[in-house]
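Rotation project, supervised by the postdoc (A.L.). Task for the rotation student: set up a whole-complex structure prediction and record inputs and outputs verbatim in this book. Inputs entered:
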Amino acid sequence: MHWKWCTTPLRLFLLDFTGYILRWDQGIQWALVVGTNLLKTIPFVGEKLHLLVVGGSNPGPGVLIRFYAWHVFLLTLGVLILGICHIFRVRRDGGIATPSSPTQTKTVRITRQELFARESLAMLIAGAGLIFLAVLFPAPLAPPIVQVSAALSEGRAPWFFLWVQQLLKAGNPFLFGVLIPVMVFLAFAAIPFLLPLPAPEEIGHWFPPGGRLAQVLILLLISSILILTFLATFR
Amino acid sequence: MTNISRRDVLHLLSQAALALAGFIGLTGLLRYLAFQSDPGPQTEFDLGPASNYLPGTRTMFPQVPALLIHDENGFRAISLVCTHLGCTVEQKENGFLCPCHGSRYDREGRVLQGPARQSLRSLNVEVTTEGNLRLSLK
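Outputs recorded:
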């Protein structure tokens, strides 16, 4: 079941994008234009895919309904199903990975009721924190979209898409907007299959030496995203 | 009369319910895939009497979006849609700038700086028999 770990970033990215579009203010206008036009650059299927996503030749109010459906229904359903699978596997495979018994010093476990109480408390605190932050810092909504092609000088992507924007500045939109991200994604999805799995005595330890190559690769990915974000912010 | 057990009936019913749910879901999916949108956006624009646009002027039409140029060679128009990924370019004193990825074009719409590779599209402008200007995107 280790193919599923890689769907999490993909789902987060799609939920991010569809959710961002739902603001339907002038801030998202170029993200919508660029994101949907990127689909068109894919050879053979691009035009069809664009029509499927946009529901017309140009993004308009119809695309809002489609993104809404994807965001609140289909993608959320996917998240739910994979989430249930995930929790099921965790239970089935004997809980969260722990160090093997000779190296494990703590043998006392909390009860299930205690765990439930603690997790509920954590959830409540996190929820209250988010509500507090949302009240304190209202979402910066721009004026609503009038026409999707209307000229707007503000072209900066939101902070979580700055790295995508910087990547697209590099040149050919298909190469930098589709092919390279997909190849990188596939390469990372293949890590558990191609690289050796941690040895039994390494399970349950942070950053075991047996997984160095995978750790370095992940570090490279994170730092390239950070560098791209940095470049887009300060140039 | 043949004997059907309660288990068989429930089994059959659950299968039927599943089939029905699948069918309804599939219908929705097919309708979604077969969706035909309204006729595409406007491709012809009536810009009014040609005499309104004096020689030597450059007029913006944000609703197209396009720039109409009237010079010694007559009327022509360039699209203001960036050829990289479709954002609308801004007019600057010596050309155009795309707000999305920083492509630059000169006053005639030729690429000065990437990521765009192609010049801004030139559009057709005609003077109709009534003396009106007609701009077409095709």
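Student's summary: Chain A has nine helices and no strands.
Supervisor addendum: Chain A touches chain B at residues 30, 33-34, 37-38, 51-52, 55-58, 62, 147, 149-155, 165, 168-173, 177 (CB under 8 Å).
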